[in-house]
Specification:
The chain is of the alpha/beta class. The protein is built from 6 helices and 7 strands, in the order ααβββααβαβββα. It is globular.
Length: about 150
């Protein structure tokens, strides 16, 4: 809880930012992972994968589970899951413990006010970033589409 407070105080840009669109620059922002470790996303990232629903989270998990433990790092990618729709008690008792079983880092959005990512229903959003600037946004709904994206 204290980390969430610190994040909201230290990084107000994430709270006040509008949705990331094509040609937008990635400003540094920080999120905690499933182990409450703070990660800062900066212009060194080339892919941002964002999920908003359990089904798309599981689809990304199916894909990443078939890859090496360092797949995201090797691809300069981050995986972010928006868990704001889950009640706090469910998040603490079930969601977070479940996410801790995954072999890769999942950055978490807890605060509805920190919505900076575009979304389409039942799809994951993938931002392609080059030199700190968003140059493409795709919405995917299957593991095959994700596989094609990374090849």
């Amino acid at each position: 809880m204290i980390k969430k407070l610190i994040l909201s105080l230290l990084f107000p840009a994430i709270i006040l930012a509008s949705n990331l669109k094509i040609n937008d620059k990635i400003s540094n922002f920080s999120l905690t992972d499933q182990f409450d470790k703070i990660h800062t996303i900066n212009s060194g990232v080339s892919t941002i994968i964002v999920t908003f629903q359990k089904d798309t989270l599981e689809m990304i998990n199916d894909f990443l589970s078939s890859k090496s433990e360092h797949f995201l790092e090797d691809k300069h990618a981050v995986f972010i899951s928006n868990i704001t729709s889950s009640p706090t008690i469910i998040t603490r008792m079930f969601t977070i413990p479940h996410l801790r079983d995954y072999k890769y880092t999942i950055l978490l959005i807890y605060d509805e006010n920190s919505m900076k990512f575009l979304k389409e229903e039942n799809k994951a959003t993938i931002y392609s970033v080059f030199n700190g600037q968003v140059n493409d946004i795709q919405y995917i709904s299957s593991k095959d589409e994700l596989e094609k994206f990374f090849h």
